[in-house]
Design goal:
alpha/beta; 8-stranded parallel beta barrel; two-stranded antiparallel ribbon; globular
């Protein structure tokens, strides 16, 4: 497995997000751990992921041996009004006492107002969790337009440690330029297996991590082979 240096720790160049049912999900982390993958998206709070199976499988390994990621589900306006309760529930459901990576999920026109609303206090709450070391690295994810991303970064960019960006054929030029301006490392998420795209991103010095959405062992093994 290829590893990258990220804030003085070893980060596997390949990260994993499992997008299928519990039976499959429970077995894939074992394959990934054996291959040297140490970054895992729990998917807690998002659709299309079986986070309980993923976290259950990882719980059989020492906590310091893997990096677990989650995000604040700001797509539901009700969540922004109870940020503290949402975070506590996520920790409990994943069976951990801290998250290594935690993101403001999907910074877009639909979520940015809630994230920037001081009355809701989402930012203040998550920053407190970071100070208390219940979040080790705080960042964001974005799949939308550059305008709301710029609004978010103008307010909070100096505190962001990573940004997860979906590479699905959209033009990410404006997003990439904004993140470069704020010196925020890019984690590239690949929704579907595309060998040429993966190899291209792997050679891109501006990409710190490639997160693969994996549905089965055959697909996972294809990714692992690329990152040997």
């Amino acid at each position: 497995m290829i590893y990258n240096e990220y804030k003085r720790e070893k980060l596997s160049a390949l990260g994993l997000r499992i997008t299928d049912g519990a039976g499959t999900a429970a077995g894939l982390p074992e394959i990934a751990v054996s291959a040297g993958v140490n970054y895992y998206e729990s998917g807690c709070g998002s659709s299309g992921s079986d986070f309980k199976a993923v976290c259950g499988a990882l719980s059989r390994h020492p906590r310091e041996g893997f990096l677990l990621a989650a995000g604040f589900p700001g797509h539901d306006p009700l969540n922004t009004e109870k940020a503290d309760a949402v975070f506590e529930t996520q920790l409990k459901e994943c069976g951990v006492s801290y998250f290594d990576f935690y993101a403001f999920e999907d910074v877009s026109e639909a979520t940015v107002n809630g994230y920037l609303n001081f009355e809701y206090g989402v930012f203040d709450h998550l920053m407190k969790q970071r100070v208390d070391k219940r979040i080790r690295h705080l960042g964001l994810s974005t799949n939308g337009a550059a305008a709301p991303l710029k609004r978010f970064l103008d307010s909070y960019g100096q505190f962001m440690e990573f940004c997860r960006v979906k590479f699905d054929g959209r033009d990410n030029k404006d997003t990439s330029e904004l993140l470069k301006r704020f010196m925020i490392p890019v984690f590239a998420e690949i929704p579907e297996f595309d060998e040429s795209l993966v190899k291209s991103l792997k050679e891109n010095p501006g990409i710190s991590l490639i997160i693969a959405n994996v549905k089965d062992a055959e697909q996972l093994n294809k990714y692992v082979e690329i990152f040997k």
